[in-house]
TrEMBL record:
UniProt GO BP: pantothenate biosynthetic process
Reaction it catalyzes: (R)-pantoate + NADP(+) = 2-dehydropantoate + NADPH + H(+)
Span of domain Ketopantoate reductase N-terminal: 3-180
Name of the featured protein: 2-dehydropantoate 2-reductase
GO molecular function per UniProt: 2-dehydropantoate 2-reductase activity; NADP binding
Pathway participation: Cofactor biosynthesis; (R)-pantothenate biosynthesis; (R)-pantoate from 3-methyl-2-oxobutanoate: step 2/2
Domain (Ketopantoate reductase C-terminal): residue spans on this chain: 214-335
Annotated family: Belongs to the ketopantoate reductase family.
NCBIfam families linked: apbA_panE
Organism: Paenibacillus oryzae
Amino acid sequence: MKIHIIGGGSIGLLLASRMSLGGSPATVWTRTPEQADLINREGIRLREVNEGSEQKDELVARVEGEWIGGLAVQNGRGCESPRFLQNDDSGCFHWLLLTVKQTQLEDELLHALRLLGERVGGRAAILCMQNGIGHLHKIADATNGAIPVFAAVTAAGARRIGLNEVLHTGKGEIWIGDFPENGEKGTNPWKYQQKMLLDALGKAGFSSFLSNEIHNRIYYKLLINSVINPLTALFDVSNGELPRHPRRLELMRRLHEESRLILMEAGLKPGQNTWEELLLVCSRTSENVSSMLSDVRNGKETEIQSINGAIISLANQYEKPAPLNRAVTDLIAAMTIMP
C-alpha cells in the first residue's frame, strides 16, 4: 500500500508527518515545486502541543515531496508519469488522501486525479477530507467513475506555520465511509485496503474508524463548522477564544440551533448533544486558527459557500428559515471580495 497526501496545507502536513513517523511513509503532493523541494531537503517539522503545558515537542519526519503539477495534463497534452508510477509493477494499492479545500478542487487537479486512476489500472482510491458537502459527487463525476471515492471526517486540529512546518493543535478522531455511488468499486479488495489504512493511521496516533453512517457524520461536522468557521473569522479569534465572551456564546448558540434544525430536515440524526460537542471541539482545538479565519487574514477565497452556503441551499430545499446563515455568508463574502 502506498499513501499519497494531496495538498501541503495544515491537515496534509500533519497526516504526512505523523504517518511517516509511525512507519507508513507518505508522499506529499504540493501546489508549488518550491514546497516539494523544501520537504525533500528538510522533511516536515511537526510540533506537538503537550496537554497542560506550553511546551511543544518538535519532531522531524522524512517525507517525499512531489509537485502536483507533475500529475497534470495541461492544454490537452500528456505529461511524464510521476516518479512513483515509473516502473511500478508491484501491484501496490494507492491511497490518495485528498486534503485540499473545496475551493481548490479545480479542473486541473480533478483531471490529474482521473489520469492517475487510469495509470494505476484500478489500483487507486480517493479519500476525501473536505469540509462541507457536494464535493463527493463533484470528484466522482470528474474522475468518470474510474476511481472509488471514500469520505472521511476528522476533528483533528492543525495549523501550518511554514511550508514544511505544522503545529498539531488538537486531537480528533478520523471516520471513513463508503460513497454509495461506488457500487461494486467499493467492495473487495477495498474493504481490506480500508482496514490497512486504518492500521496505518492508528500507528500514526490517530483514532480511526470505519462508519456505516458517514453522511450523518458529514452533516454533524458541517454543523460544527457552520458555527466555528464563520464566527472565528468575523471576530478574528481562535477556536478556544470564541465562546469566552457571553455575546459571542449567545450568537454561537443561535447559529447552532438554526443550522441544526435545517440539517435534521436533510437527514442529521436526532438525539446527539451537538451543542455540548461544539463547545468540546472549541476546547480541544483551543489554539487552532480556523481555516476560514486563516483565509480571511491572508486575503484568500474562503469555504463559506461550501459550509454556510450549503446550509442555505438545504434551507431553500426544505423551506426552512436561515437568516443567520445568510448573514454570516454575506459578511464573510464582503470581507474577502478581491479588489
